[in-house]
Design a protein that fits this description.
By secondary structure, this protein is mainly α. It has a single domain, classed as Helix Hairpins, CATH 1.10.287. The chain contains 4 helices and no strands.
């Protein structure tokens, strides 16, 4: 049974590597910025999953902590990039963001 689970983990790792390669393809040929951003976010999510599976394949499940840290960094980076492309700056407060939206709606 232990060998069966090792093969399942190895198969999952190979499947994740294949899907990560497909996400890199979408990143390179994505027609819009949002397609590319979605590909980067999906690649980060698949990287977290791959790190978790890989840690169990090599028998060191303590590496899951690193995967969780990477997941948090991926989330924060995605929010920062979306905010930058929406407002063209990262230092806009919430109050200024609402006034900027109202100014754009009035034009």
């Amino acid at each position: 049974m232990e060998h069966f689970m090792a093969y399942v983990n190895l198969g999952a790792a190979l499947f994740l590597l294949l899907s990560m390669a497909m996400m890199l393809g979408r990143l390179l040929i994505g027609p819009t910025l949002y397609d590319r951003l979605l590909a980067v976010n999906s690649f980060g999510t698949k990287t977290v999953l791959f790190l978790c599976v890989f840690c169990f394949v090599i028998g060191r499940p303590d590496g899951v902590d690193i995967a969780l840290l990477y997941a948090l960094m991926n989330f924060i980076a995605t929010i920062a990039v979306l905010k930058f492309f929406r407002y063209r700056a990262l230092d806009i407060s919430l109050e200024n963001a609402h006034s900027t939206q109202n100014d754009r709606a009035a034009e």
